[in-house]
Specification:
- The chain has 119 residues and is an alpha+beta fold.
- It contains 3 helices and 3 strands.
- Helix 1 packs across helix 2.
- The model has no long low-confidence stretch (mean pLDDT 91).
Length: 119
């Protein structure tokens, strides 16, 4: 499992994690798109925004390996702002390639391109 050096491990001041420390002995948790409802808590929305900001700052438009990125956090943006970068795509692989859909990020998280994280 690739560890993304320099990628934030969690949203500062919260318990929302962005990365995992070690791989799961039973294999990677499969990625599945989760529905984001309009009535989500503000803390959950900040976590999504912080995660997208970190992805944009760390990877930009280039494809990246899933590696140690937390599946729970990825599932909230998978299929919308983060999409598969390879075909066929294995959602249960730490080596799976992903990429950011810049147009969707600009529409849903306009602050993701700021130098510092803005809520």
């Amino acid at each position: 499992m690739l560890k993304h050096k320099g990628f934030p491990s969690r949203l500062p001041g919260s318990d929302f994690q962005f990365t995992i420390r070690r791989d799961n002995k039973g294999g990677a948790t499969p990625l599945t798109a989760r529905e984001r409802y309009a009535d989500r808590r503000p803390a959950d929305r900040r976590a999504d925004a912080g995660f997208i900001w970190a992805l944009v700052q760390h990877f930009g438009e280039e494809p990246f390996e899933r590696g140690n990125l937390d599946a729970g956090r990825l599932n909230w943006v998978f299929g919308r702002e983060v999409i598969p970068a390879e075909d066929p795509f294995d959602p249960a692989s730490y080596e799976a390639l992903l990429r950011i859909d810049i147009r969707r990020v600009q529409a849903n998280f306009p602050n993701a391109f700021a130098e510092e994280f803005i809520e």
